[in-house]
Amino acid sequence: MFDALSERFEGIFGRLRSRGRLTPKDLDEVAREIRLALIEADVNLRAIMQFIARVKEQASGAEVAKSLSPAQQVIKIVHDELVATLGGTTGKLTMSPKPPTVVMLAGLQGSGKTTAAGKLARLLKAQGLQPLLVGADLQRPAAVEQLRILAERVDVPFYSEQSAPADVARGAMEEAARLGRNVVIVDTAGRLQIDAALMDELRGVRDVAMPHNTLLVVDAMTGQEAVNVAEAFNDAVGLDGVILTKIDGDARGGAALSVKEVVGKPILFAGTGENLEDFEPFHPDRMASRILGMGDVLTLIEKAEEAFDEEQVRKAEAILRQGQFDLDDFLGQLQQVKKMGPLQGVIGMLPGVPKEVKDAQIDDRELARVEAIIHSMTMEERRNPAIVNGSRRVRIARGSGTTTSDVNNLLKQFKQMQQMMRGMGFGRPGKKGKRPRLPVPGL
Amino acid sequence: MRGIAGRAVDEETWEELEEALILADVGLPTTGRLLDAVRARAAAEKVGDTDSVVAILREEIAALLDGSTGRDLVVEPGEPNVWLFVGVNGVGKTTTIGKLAAQQSDAGRSVVLAAADTFRAAAAEQLQLWGERVGAAVVRGQEGADPGSVIYDAMAAASGRSADLVLVDTAGRLHTKVNLMEELKKLRRIVDRTAGACKEVLLVIDATTGQNGLAQARQFAEAVDVTGIALTKLDGTAKGGIVLAIQGELGIPVKIVGVGEGVDDLMAFDPAEFAAALFE
């Protein structure tokens, strides 16, 4: 596997760091790297060509800002262009001035239409709307039953009938009028875009329901095929937007860019998990970072800004530089990090963190244990862990509800971390593979 | 690819071949390795026209896929036989089981279906409908029930009625969800309580899947020792090229291929045919 785009760029630019402006030859080389990175992320080749043409145009005219290295400059251009491409109004349906507003979900088999329908109904209901869920997938065995159960779970009325999909849509519109529902969500059968008969059937449903929002549901793990799918569905029924599902996995999600290049309509929502509440407005900036393999830097920065007290950060930094980092400082940092949410989530967003670390199961309870151990130490012990002898160890273990070997492990790992920090001279970027081990299991 | 037939091989040819492989979701590393091998052979065999080069590429692809041991799904007469179906959400596990149940019934075997996807709403109903369609018994629990107990019951039922085969449907799960993968390991252990019963663990992969398919295969193989791939939805225009990377890097063979929603739309995997279809 290749490294993230930022590292590739650093390589190219390493030798021309001093230069102020990018030459056309540099740009070609950069374009090649962008192409490879986007292929890895499953962006369709055609979409990549269009995208790179725009990036080149932007980059060739750009003045190099003094504060940025050429690599940073190009990354910024690529990232900004990606955000612009993925962007548009998100998380908002087009509401009809005359209710009900109709939403029709379409897509391949298994893309997640039925689940998305249930999640969307929950979201709209929470926003104070009155949705009606409609099961027009008469193809897949028990698909209607699946949606009926989801409707029950989110406490929203449900309509279907055993007839033809277009008739279901007709009946649903009457039902919505009868019940006074202001949003109608129509789930349709999964179909291949090359299946002419089923695409005709979908047009039939559209002609009856006349949706204000015809949304394509796309699996984030989709490869090159995303372009063909989006194009065909757009041609057949005219798409107004996209729902990207299953983004809680580790797919880079290039399909988002492929689809956006083709359809040109906003990606409105993203499915982010197994539960019905795991459904949110799509974030173009986060997706851009993810496609480029740069981690969810922006989200992390936001979270860090919320959680960290600036004064405390400065203090911690000074301490780190002097190499006088004691267990009390560590405890303080631990508590700051905890404010940012579950550790697994925070680490997942960090760029450049090795995959093994991201995949390692980090139990927040382990953090609680570490905290308990430090809390059970006297201030003197925290400042100078070397004085912790056998009897102190037993006391600390008892006080924190842990074992003496837990206490030992923490002290040993902390000592290693201290040595590493001194050795590296904290503040300068460390060499690869020399990352200090934090005294938390799994990290 | 037809456009380049008969031409002399030049750099453009190689670029077009690379594009074709990438568009088929083969991925950069495997594409690079394949084309290196083809270049070497083309040079050694002094081949200069595109037709021959494409033929060599097809051979290399088929050879890569053929490097595996048997593709037949294992059933031992007179023994408990369990096939476990695993994969991420929406790849077609339940449909694949339905079709396989039909084929196995037609072949004269008695089949029990275990609805161990107790998470997705109506997943058991979906399997139940397949069971009725093909005349296979279905063992299911309440929604949200312990999937392990469903498997246990299904194996007991199969043994009680001397059924030949138990097909276990599991809930779709992303390979990155540690707790769900742990649950899957537990399910496998329940099957393994009857030593030798677990004959196949089939990872179902959707042909539209991109590079993430490799990560899926790696994680599922690590968790439950996957014996083969069921490649679904090959009836569309997606090529399913990620199975080349899976075979090449992990040595897991494709065993069956799904080509539609009908009972008969399930076939044995044919490497040569698959290789040819990559360039259609």
User: What is the multimeric organization of the chains shown?
Assistant: heterodimer
CATH fold-level label of the largest domain in chain A: Rossmann fold
Helix segment count of chain A?
20
- CATH classification, class level of the largest domain in chain A: Alpha Beta
Helix content estimate of chain B: 40-55%
How far from one another are the termini of chain B? 7 Å
Q: Unreliable segments of chain B (pLDDT under 50, ≥5 consecutive)? A: none
Summarize the main sheet of chain A.
8 strands, mixed
Write down how many β-strands of chain A occur, each being a DSSP E stretch of 2 or more residues.
8
The CATH homologous superfamily of the largest domain in chain A: P-loop containing nucleotide triphosphate hydrolases
How large is the radius of gyration of chain A? 27 Å
Report the β-strand fraction of chain B as a percent range: 15-25%
Number of domains of chain A: 3
How do the strands and helices of this protein lay out in sequence?
The complex is a heterodimer of chains A (443) and B (280).
Chain A: H1 5-13, H2 24-40, H3 45-61, H4 70-86, E1 101-106, H5 113-126, E2 131-136, H6 143-153, E3 158-159, H7 165-179, E4 183-188, H8 196-209, E5 213-219, H9 226-237, E6 241-245, H10 255-263, E7 267-271, E8 279-281, H11 284-291, H12 297-307, H13 310-322, H14 327-338, H15 343-349, H16 355-359, H17 364-375, H18 379-383, H19 390-400, H20 404-424
Parallel strand pairs in A: 1-4, 1-5, 2-3, 2-4, 5-6, 6-7
Antiparallel strand pairs in A: 7-8
Chain B: H1 11-23, H2 28-44, H3 50-66, E1 82-86, H4 93-106, E2 111-116, H5 123-134, E3 137-140, H6 147-160, E4 165-170, H7 178-192, E5 198-206, H8 212-224, E6 228-232, H9 242-250, E7 254-258, E8 266-268, H10 271-277
Parallel strand pairs in B: 1-4, 1-5, 2-3, 2-4, 5-6, 6-7
Antiparallel strand pairs in B: 7-8
